[in-house]
């Protein structure tokens, strides 16, 4: 781990149905180079739950890369706005996931959460990983 090195994290969650078969993914980028990707099947969940799990798992894994500054990018405006305090959290299951994100964020010198468009190149990589995971684990038609 490099304590002071910054890390950019791009996350995505997807569900086929809402709720439906769900997966999450993250892409770690340092100096414009992808240094790690990961995606896992979540089971039956909503898209918002999958988006939160992407952030949680990314932050848990990022501790092996840095203790410094981390910037988390997501195309989920809801998750980013809840994490930055702009939106209230009205559902207890999302509040519990929010608390888990905040707990993981405490491992870093600084964490920023930024909303980016769905067509951002690294978000598209994370989206592709989610869909590949869903194809492999859940099959079925593509919906997001």
Automatic annotation (TrEMBL):
Domain RNase H type-1: 3-135
Xref: Gene3D superfamilies: Ribonuclease H-like superfamily/Ribonuclease H
InterPro entries named in the record: RNaseH-like_sf (IPR012337), RNaseH_domain (IPR002156), RNaseH_sf (IPR036397)
Name under which the protein is recorded: Ribonuclease HI family protein
């Amino acid at each position: 781990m490099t304590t002071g090195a910054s890390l950019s994290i791009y996350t995505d969650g997807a569900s086929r149905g809402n709720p439906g078969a769900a997966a999450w993914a993250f892409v770690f980028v340092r100096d414009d180079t992808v240094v790690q990707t990961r995606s896992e099947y979540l089971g039956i969940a909503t898209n918002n739950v999958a988006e939160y799990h992407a952030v949680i798992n990314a932050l848990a894994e990022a501790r092996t890369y840095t203790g410094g500054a981390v910037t988390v990018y997501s195309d989920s405006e809801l998750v980013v706005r809840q994490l930055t305090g702009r939106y209230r959290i009205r559902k207890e299951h999302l509040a519990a996931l929010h608390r888990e994100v905040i707990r993981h964020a405490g491992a870093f010198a600084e964490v920023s959460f930024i909303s980016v468009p769905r067509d951002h190149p690294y978000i598209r990589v994370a989206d592709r990983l989610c869909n590949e995971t869903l194809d492999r684990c859940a099959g079925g038609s593509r919906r997001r």
